[in-house]
Write a structure and sequence with these properties.
Blueprint lengths: L1 H25 L17 H27 L2 H11 L1 H12 L4 H24 L1
Length: 125
């Protein structure tokens, strides 16, 4: 039962990551919500870097779907555990950039916590 819930939550995380990655192409101004002050959303060079991030986000979300389709519960759990390093790193980046604490803890920290819970549920299944 808990592994089914964790699997669904992992799928939602995957869909969210794909959505965030795709959004960099049609709404680059949404990058301000990441939490880094002074995000230069009108700068063409920044758009190029944001596109790089978008492609990587889409691929990361697709990895989750691949594991959902063909992997084991434990493999998905290990992947989610490793992938939790991404929002932890994002939180550190925003914190070191003097970004809002709401983004550090409420967005990135909460995402990392959810991913850790998902990975634990999948690994104990």
């Amino acid at each position: 039962m808990l592994s089914n819930i964790a699997t669904v939550l992992a799928g939602l995380i995957g869909a969210g990551v794909v959505f965030m990655g795709a959004r960099t192409f049609w709404a680059p101004q949404a990058a301000v919500g990441f939490g880094i002050p002074g995000t230069p959303t009108e700068d063409r060079s920044f758009h190029a870097w944001l596109s790089v991030k978008g492609v990587r986000d889409i691929a990361s979300g697709l990895f989750i779907f691949i594991l959902l389709a063909g992997g084991t519960t434990h493999l998905l759990g290990w992947f989610m555990l490793a992938a939790a390093a991404v929002p932890v790193g994002d939180a550190v980046i925003v914190l070191r950039s003097n970004g809002p604490k709401a983004a550090v803890y409420g967005i990135h920290g909460a995402t990392a916590a959810v991913m850790l819970v998902i990975s634990a549920l999948l690994l104990i299944a």
